[in-house]
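for the recovery benchmark. tokens below, seq after
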């Protein structure tokens, strides 16, 4: 009896240990971003020939074709039309218009990539692309050395060297991990005694600088008081947001905002709300017709075709599992979007974080009848584009602290630069909007977002 009970228990444990491959694949596909999903699909198309991409055979209708039907007169252009002249092939003896020779504006990623590719071999350019893509709108690097090494499949030493190379680029301070490193990078080549002391203060006495403990700085550095004042003046002239220096230092550059790629888009039109999930879906793929045709033919044949049948069936089953996983991903994101429309319509319409209502992943999962882990995978490290066009991380929907941080950012964005708001004043403005937080909390959130104090914002 004991032996039989042990065998029964072991069988149950083995059964419980087996997880359906569909569930594993669905979970994996669900947690991917739209960019990662495209990479996975490319890999799947290569590995499984039973899966094929559906090519769009229809050519898009051009504006000229539409005008030729509804307003043919609009196609008749004057002989003095500049656009017509520009689109007409030039004769051999015709000199080009100087306007046509002007260079396009250069974006920040292009500007940095151009500097870095000169210093690295072509085989290492993928590291450059990853680093540049990991910069936020202010020029700070939002990834760690370990993540760079893991993602780019290089050693930690190589990752550190690549980051240092990025930090040596223009504008000064780009690629820094935090404000302290950003400011010290701008003084990596000090020319005066005041600049050298300023770099020392930034590296060794950062805590004293933040708390403005001038007496502690003088005591520890043993530097003359006048020289310390000169060093502080140098620090105040540094750029806390390195990308902003491009507006004055490089007039030929166009600083483009590169928001994260959204995974879900919710927009409001005259006919109502619309939900769109980004990235390929199950509608873009199908089981290859050659495989289904061959399988049907094998079923009518006699002879030793068992191995070929088994191979084709396995490939088709794998393709169908992948298509089902893609369909589930799209379905789950749509259900999440529909619930957000019901619960967060004010925020989705206006982008004002004041309208964000308290929401947790567990509550969302309960409301749409999904497991909490499913909702977590569907929203973790993903981004949502709301009706205003703004792209925000899903995290802001579930973390009240992020909501407050965003509100503080918005308040500072509209403050008078000649009379910056103190943390106490920010706390009172938040209270007027129904959000009660202490001055110390405002200070903590402001520091977390690398936002300077009112004193430094006045002089920045």
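predicted aa per position
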């Amino acid at each position: 009896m004991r032996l039989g009970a042990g065998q029964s228990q072991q069988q149950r444990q083995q059964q419980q240990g087996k997880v359906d491959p569909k569930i594993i694949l669905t979970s994996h596909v669900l947690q991917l971003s739209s960019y990662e999903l495209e990479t996975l699909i490319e890999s799947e198309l290569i590995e499984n020939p039973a899966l094929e991409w559906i090519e769009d055979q229809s050519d898009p209708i051009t504006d000229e074709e539409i005008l030729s039907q509804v307003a043919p007169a609009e196609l008749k252009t004057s002989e003095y039309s500049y656009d017509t002249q520009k689109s007409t092939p030039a004769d051999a003896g015709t000199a080009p218009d100087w306007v046509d020779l002007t260079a396009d504006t250069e974006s920040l990623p292009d500007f940095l990539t151009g500097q870095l590719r000169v210093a690295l071999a072509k085989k290492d350019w993928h590291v450059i692309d990853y680093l540049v893509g990991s910069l936020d709108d202010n020029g700070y690097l939002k990834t760690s050395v370990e993540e760079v090494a893991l993602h780019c499949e290089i050693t930690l030493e190589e990752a550190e060297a690549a980051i240092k190379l990025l930090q040596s680029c223009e504008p000064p301070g780009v690629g820094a991990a935090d404000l302290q490193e950003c400011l010290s990078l701008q003084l990596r080549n000090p020319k005066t005694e005041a600049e050298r002391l300023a770099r020392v203060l930034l590296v060794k006495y950062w805590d004293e600088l933040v708390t403005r403990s001038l007496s502690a700085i003088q005591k520890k550095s043993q530097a003359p008081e006048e020289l310390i004042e000169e060093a502080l003046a140098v620090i105040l002239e540094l750029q806390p947001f390195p990308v902003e220096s491009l507006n004055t230092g490089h007039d030929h550059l166009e600083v483009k905002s590169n928001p994260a790629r959204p995974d879900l888009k919710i927009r409001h039109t005259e006919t109502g709300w619309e939900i769109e999930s980004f990235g390929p879906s199950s509608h873009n793929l199908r089981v290859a017709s050659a495989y289904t045709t061959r399988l049907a033919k094998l079923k009518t044949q006699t002879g030793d075709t068992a191995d070929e049948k088994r191979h084709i069936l396995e490939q088709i089953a794998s393709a169908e599992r992948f298509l089902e996983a893609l369909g589930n991903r799209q379905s789950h994101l749509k259900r999440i979007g529909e619930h957000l429309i019901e619960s967060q319509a004010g925020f989705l319409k206006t982008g004002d974080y004041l309208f964000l209502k308290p929401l947790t992943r567990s509550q969302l999962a309960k409301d749409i009848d999904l497991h909490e882990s499913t909702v977590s995978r569907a929203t973790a490290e993903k981004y949502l584009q709301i009706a205003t066009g703004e792209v925000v991380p899903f995290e802001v929907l579930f973390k009240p602290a992020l909501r407050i941080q965003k509100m503080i950012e918005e308040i500072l964005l509209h403050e008078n630069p000649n009379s910056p708001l103190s943390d106490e004043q920010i706390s009172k403005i938040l209270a007027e909007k129904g959000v009660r937080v202490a001055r110390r909390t405002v200070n903590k959130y402001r520091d977390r977002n690398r936002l300077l104090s009112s004193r430094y914002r006045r002089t920045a």
